[in-house]
Amino acid sequence: MVSSRMIEAAVGMFLCVGVAAIFVLTLQASSMNRVPSKEIYTVRARFENVGSLRVGAPVAVAGVTIGRVTDITLDKKMFEGVVSMTLGKDFGELPKDSNASVLTRGLLGEQYIGITPGGLEEPLRDGDEIQLTQPAVVLEDLIGKFLYNAGTSQDHQQ
Questions:
Q1: How far is residue 109 from each of residues 53, 57, 106, 139, measured CA to CA in Å?
Q2: Where are the beta strands (DSSP E) in 8-116?
Q3: Whether residues 91 and 110 fall in one domain
Q4: Nearest to 105 by CA among 51, 148, 146, 143
């Protein structure tokens, strides 16, 4: 028969391992917010809808993280979301006519900024604004449009 002291010791050890695991995950998550580059520059982009994009979200080109979102504000005159992001210089210079989109990893995953490089030779510089943007796709809006269109197509068939 196992004594209650041994059960208490096992539960205590299990609790300590759990707390240590949470601590390690927290450290790893905080290190993910750094731009994987020593030299960085900051650019901005304006979006009609930033969805659930958050500060610290990745900025990626072709699926490779090249930077992080550093700030999200509202332009009070244009009523657009202004997203500031830092990009690593060691990933190369993005063309000035690059396109920035708010994308989602998976069906319900985290949102991030995806950049599609343009074709101009002139690169983005520190403080520039990406002019070509695509807002976040809101799943609820898509479902609502689908249901509305399905309902109106049934009305036309009758």
A1: 11, 12, 5, 11
A2: 40-47, 58-61, 64-75, 80-88, 99-104, 111-116
A3: yes
A4: 51
Whether residue 3 is contained in a domain is answered as yes
CA–CA distances in Å: residue 26 to residues 5, 33, 114: 32, 11, 25
Expressed as residue numbers, the domain containing 1 is 1-31
* Strands 99-104 and 64-75, sheet pairing: unpaired
List pLDDT tens digits, range 65-97: 999 999 999 999 999 999 999 999 888 889 999
Contact assessment for residue 97 and residue 118, using Cβ atoms and an 8 Å cutoff? yes
Q: Count CB atoms within 10 A of the CB of residue 112.
A: 19
- pTM for this entry: 0.68
Q: CA dist 130 to 6, 11, 51, 82, Å?
A: 62, 54, 18, 11
Are 47 and 119 in the same domain?
Answer: yes
